[in-house]
Amino acid sequence: xxxxxxxxxxxxxxxxxxxxxxxxxxxxxxxxxxxxxxxxxxxxxxxxxxxxxxxxxxxxxxxxxxxxxxxxxxxxxxxxxxxxxxxxxxxxxxxxxxxxxxxxxxxxxxxxxxxxxxxxxxxxxxxxxxxxxxxxxxxxxxxxxxxxxxxxxxxxxxxxxxxxxxxxxxxxxxxxxxxxxxxxxxxxxxxxxxxxxxxxxxxxxxxxxxxxxxxxxxxxxxxxxxxxxxxxxxxx
Length: 236
Ligand code: 5RP
Known about the structure:
Layout: H1 8-23, E1 31-34, H2 38-52, E2 59-62, H3 65-73, E3 89-92, E4 96-97, E5 103-104, H4 111-119, E6 124-128, E7 142-146, H5 151-160, E8 164-167, E9 185-190, H6 197-205, E10 210-213, E11 215-216, E12 222-227, E13 230-234
Parallel strand pairs: 1-2, 1-3, 3-6, 6-12
Antiparallel strand pairs: 4-5, 5-11, 7-9, 7-10, 8-9, 12-13
Helix pairs in contact: 1-2
Residues 35-40, 92-95, 105-111, 114 line the site of ribulose-5-phosphate.
């Protein structure tokens, strides 16, 4: 018999635990990158509390309009993108991570901004529940951000690479396609397994109109993964 999937409440508890552990990595005065998704939202909420209590003074940039709105509402001082801006620490979730800390991200559609901030960060810390750590990437469909005009050719090209691409529907209005914060389309590409993520990433980078893919390689420095109610640090 297959092991049963953890209950959603248990997963949410794990996400909260990981977020609380990540808050201890934040030092006064840091410039932070804020991730996107339910785990990152827990972190932003705890960070907002610490800022409100005067425990921490930080400045931050968010990886999505949703995270930015949450941070603004909680009174976290926000920085807009500008030349020279770097982040001491970015805290973000992931859809899958392997023991070498290679990631699949973009389940929340924010892969492009997430990769931009990860790249501008001295330290990318991933926070994740117990379902995210996998021996090999690829069970989770790989998110792609695609310029609308290029969609048919991008679909052909990723199919040639062995993926099964599906245009992501909008969650609230499934007749319409989902759009990224940039107004681009989101495609979920089913590979089932990605034994050589570097090779797939290199191939995807050659496809015109494919703005970004959700493979994050060599970017994460550590992950806090909750397993059996314990926070475990994973380093590559
Ligand atoms: C958003 C992401 C998220 O980090 C990823 O989807 C994980 O989300 P959650 O914390 O809700 O499980 O990459 O683009």
